[in-house]
Design a protein that fits this description.
This protein has 12 helices and no strands. It has 316 residues and is mostly helical. Helix 2 packs across helix 4, helix 5 crosses helix 8 and helix 10 packs across helix 11. It starts with a helix and ends in an 8-residue tail after the last helix. GO terms for molecular function: tricarboxylate secondary active transmembrane transporter activity.
Length: 316
């Protein structure tokens, strides 16, 4: 027995390796985000925002409202420049911050699941405060200011509106609703990481791949779709964000729009259902985002590895 013990090498704990952040990682993150928002992302965003701002509208009524104000291109309102600016920057921010946060969480003792959640939450918050605050604000302004036209007032151009808000309210005005965006992003990415992992575990059990076997492309897409769709549970935060950034004139609205006061205002006006307006397009948007950034991200990483001969660590 002593001979056997002596022959066996001591078990060593696998050392965590800090993967380098490369320029190609940033390009990959930005490119995937641009693809997502330019295809189905922005139309779903416009429908979701329209329903959240007009909480009495049904899904069909929201589609009609968008078509009436701009036809086919009405579904892409806010894409240029705000959605493109947001997409091309938030991927890079999330990539860097989430990778760093996950690494240090693992070093501190977190397991793979916990490290992923911490990375997603931290990256989501960084996205909101670094780049998404003013972009989501300006997209919402563009989508909701058609109400001014309905009252006979000609809306200002995109940049005129931006400068007008900046002159009146400064950086705080441009970033109005950024706290709600931060809450949304941290719950978004925490949920997407966690729920996608749970979905993968379920798929592994059903397909008898519980011993580390790789999931197929269709299985990865299914897991991403389930994780993305279920992450829409935080829709009330999105409705609050839209209301905080909306240019709607209502004497009953709180003068100081905080997350709490806005939630109370929406509940008083539309009840609990009002806090979940737009959840259907939001589910579609979450599914598409997660499929693009998880399943398609894996395919893109594999392709880049073949071209460069290096491993690319892309985070969604």
């Amino acid at each position: 027995m002593s001979t056997t013990a002596a022959a066996m090498p001591p078990l060593t704990e696998k050392k965590l390796e800090k993967k380098p952040i490369k320029f190609s990682n940033f390009l990959l993150g930005a490119g995937l985000n641009l693809f997502e928002v330019t295809t189905l992302g922005q139309p779903l965003e416009v429908v979701k925002t329209t329903m959240a701002a007009n909480r009495g509208d049904s899904f069909a009524a929201a589609l009609g409202r968008i078509w009436n104000r701009g036809g086919f291109f009405g579904y892409y309102q806010g894409l240029i420049p705000w959605a493109w600016i947001e997409a091309s920057t938030k991927g890079a921010v999330l990539l860097f911050v989430a990778s760093e946060a996950e690494y240090y969480a693992r070093v501190a003792g977190a397991n793979e699941f916990g490290g992923g959640i911490i990375g997603g939450v931290t990256g989501g918050v960084a996205q909101a405060y670094a780049t998404m605050g003013f972009c989501t604000c300006m997209k919402t302004v563009e989508i909701t200011q058609h109400k001014l036209a309905a009252s006979g007032v000609k809306p200002k151009s995109t940049f005129a509106t931006f400068m007008d808000i900046y002159r009146k309210e400064g950086i705080r005005g441009i970033n109005k609703g950024v706290n709600a965006v931060a809450i949304r992003q941290m719950t978004n990415w925490g949920s997407r990481f966690g729920l996608s992992r749970l979905a993968e575990q379920g798929i592994r059990k059903v397909t008898n791949k519980e011993h580390g076997e790789k999931l197929g492309a269709a299985e990865k897409i299914l897991a991403s779709a389930l994780g993305g769709g279920l992450s829409a549970w935080n829709q009330p935060i999105e409705v609050i964000r839209v209301e905080m950034q909306s240019k709607t004139e209502d004497p009953n609205r709180p003068k100081k729009m905080t997350v709490g006061s806005t939630a109370r205002y929406i509940y008083q006006q539309n009840g609990l259902k009002g806090l979940y307006r737009g959840v259907a397009p939001r589910i579609g948007l979450s599914v598409w985002q997660t499929v693009c950034m998880v399943a398609m991200g894996d395919m893109a990483k594999t392709y880049v590895e073949k071209l460069t001969g290096d491993k690319v660590t892309a985070k969604h």
